[in-house]
Amino acid sequence: SAALADNHEDFIQCLSPSNQTSSNIYTPNNSSFSSVLQKSIQNLRFNTTKTPKPLVIVTPVSEFEVQLVILCAKKTGMHVRVRGGGHDYEGLSYVSEVPLAVVDLINHRKINVNVNDKSAWVEAGSTIGELYYRISEKSKTLGFPAGVCPTVGVGGHFSGGGYGTLLRKYGLSADNIVDARLIDANGRILDRNSMGEDLFWAIRGGGGNTFGLVLAWKVKLVDVPEKVTVFTLNKTLEQNATKLIHKWQYVAPRFPEDLFIRILVNRLNSSDQGGNNKQTLVASFNSIFLGRIDQLLPIMQENFAELGLRREDCIEMSWIESIMYFAGFPGGASPNVLLSRVQLLTRNFKAKSDYVYQPIPEGGLEGIWKLFFEDESQAAQVILSPYGGRMDDISSSSIPFPHRVGNLYKIQYLLYWDEQAEEVADRRHISWIRRLYSYMTPFVSKFPRAAYINYRDLDIGVNNIKGHTSYAQAKVWGIKYFKNNFDRLVHVKTKVDPSNFFRNEQSIPSLT
Ligand code: FDA
User: 47 CB contacts (<8 Å, ≥6 apart)?
Assistant: First the structure.
């Protein structure tokens, strides 16, 4: 509307009063607007001609400029979203039905690693790949527990928890944050000391774009051995995948915390000996052990001999090489690949998540496979990530992320497809994954049916983005992500951002 358009012009005027053409304010009239917008879009579902576009993108270069964006937005009533790595599953950092300005932190990527006190300051526009790389430049025996895909941004990732292959040993990224610099809704820059422990608690897992704009995180680095061991064993249904997954549920959450074995299940189209197309599933047992092969083999023999792991399946490497191995780069690749912010393969996708407290019976698993075989045109995947170890020791209220003791593992369901912007196809695919989710109901957590905020899923409930959101409405989705921590998050939000300046379709509401 005209009112909204005026609003965004006032916002730009406020940012750049002398009307100088600033090089870091982009509107759709700028020839580079699309490339700046698309640069970090990870889900092609939100890169179509029909996707609502922001009215302005700002890429500030200094903390002062970021502060100015917040102050000007506040003054002119402009709705702002913060974008870090742009990996939000539902595109919330750059898409909304309401007119938006995006503040993209692409120019805030300094990383300062301090080997002596085993810490690092990481600016919030950095990716986890950049963080891993900068740590490895300085030390071969320090690491950080964060996600598998190097292009993920620390801005959103740490705000929602953040986990990867070190989860069972060291917990989440958010468990290892010791300080932060944040711009609050009044435009003030705060650190841990000045923001106080309530707000510092909330930003470590309570979700991005809710309590303020994080400029930088200070993280505690963790010890990793000089050599770790990795392996990936692929098992098809004919090679007893179902029985092996069934057994994995009992052993993987109880392994020593140095051992992490996740499972990725994919459909595989192959031909049999007669040249006929046949379909099977392949379960990849994808693992890292924080130690040597000689230590790993007896553990596997004792706990999971059925998997049949042999010495020749295992590779010893440095921790940073294991990061590249898990990210899918070929052996021998230079760690420089971790600095690239470009995801090699971007597609349309929809994902959902669940937590599992009781092993799923074999028959239950077979029902998933049946759904996998329904439709050849789609690429479905489920990823099972074991919990236990350190995750059992951290209290469920220590940070907002509540999914701790009692969880055997997390499931992520993903569906990828390639058709471009065809609503019919989108609807068909999305309805398939919703059916899978509904099929899983008896096997997963209940009251609430828990979910992981970094696997954002708007199906589980949304705020009223155009108006007031009640506590009860937000609680529908909030309790799934945060369980009993939801109320404390609402309390903090009401205190630090009563006017609900930082908001999105799934941000904690203020009660005022
Ligand atoms: P993006 O910029 O989209 O931000 C996500 C949310 O945080 C938005 O609401 C945004 O406004 C807000 N935000 C961003 N920066 C902020 C800041 N500085 N201050 C305040 N708010 C901010 N997760 C995981 O735990 N383990 C994994 O291995 C993976 N792997 C993975 C692979 C791929 C290909 C994708 C697409 C995603 C994952 N994820 C993941 C999920 C990932 O953790 C999640 O999408 C993060 O929120 C992404 O953070 P970005 O900064 O990249 O996203």
Answer: 38, 41
